[in-house]
Amino acid sequence: MRYDADFLDNHIIREDMQMIYQSLKAWNLLERSGIYITGATGMIASYFVMFLIFLNEVYGSCIEIYAGIRSVEKARRRFGKYCDREYLHLICSDINTPLVIQDPIHYIVHAASLASPQYYGKMPVETMLPNVIGTCELLKYGAENPLKGFLFFSSGSVYGSVGKTADIVETTVGSMDWMAAGNVYGESKRCGEAMCSAYFREYGVPVKIARIHHTYGPTMDVQNDKRVFAEFANNILNNNNIVLKSDGEDKRAFCYLGDTTAALFQILLNGEAGECYNVGNPDQYVSIRELAELLTGVFPEKGLRVEFQKREDAGYCASPVRRMTPVNVDKLKELGWNAKVTVADGFTRSLQYLSEMKDG
Fold first, then answer.
1. Three-class SS state of 151
2. What pTM value is reported for the model?
3. Is the pLDDT of residue 228 over 90?
4. Structural domain 7-224+254-284+324-346, CATH architecture
């Protein structure tokens, strides 16, 4: 799998970037700013960085982008020729150590995290540290250096198990067994949120929290990400049947990456400091099984079907939470955001892009 050396030449990426641009009008707030993004080569954060590059290349926003990464090679696969632009700075550092950047930083976006269940059993400590220690180090920087905005990528996992309720709003409180292996991610995100709130109240750090629910898109790492939607996409790209390793009855609100990225910018620029916002698409609330059946029909000419198989990866620790309640995004919509892409259209776009990159 390779990534296009000039992703802005790809019609799918270009259309997504333009869709994000049209979603709000506060882009002038980013002009001539310094923005530090941790985990910059991750699925969601990389789209965030791509859009900042788009703003610079198309609209001359003069944004200094500081991309926190672990691998220069992966960054070059993600961002191609733009890695050589003077405005894109690749920062290789340990997120769990103090942030040291001499240039002015106006915004911090903390996205570094091991978000896939494949890590929870094998690397529980490494899963938790970026959300706890890494968050603390960045908040310390924000307490000592004035910021215009601090965005923490949290997760819908913080809700844990929720009883019968109409939907999940930002004040919903669920239960979570913090000793269960599959909950190391959600519990560490809870701790990260609590620290953000504490630094906001005590030091005035302008934190905003995005509780991101299931997101998919063109930058999925389908070869290595073991989450079901990425595995499904990988099966289709390789002309294999979709293999379900559960009963598939759990439901999730799947949100296309372009919509999620637009929501994140909306929260960063228009959200209220000290607040959290659900990010998801409840209109696309489907079960894992329904998603699998939908995807096998995206390319009917492949003749693919859904199969069931027991998961044998002992290191894969799926959360024990079984959620059958949709997420509520009214608070996000009040900022002016609305999801635009359906699951069928979004996965079709994603698979078309990934197929082009695989064959290119």
1. strand
2. 0.91
3. no
4. 3-Layer(aba) Sandwich (3.40)
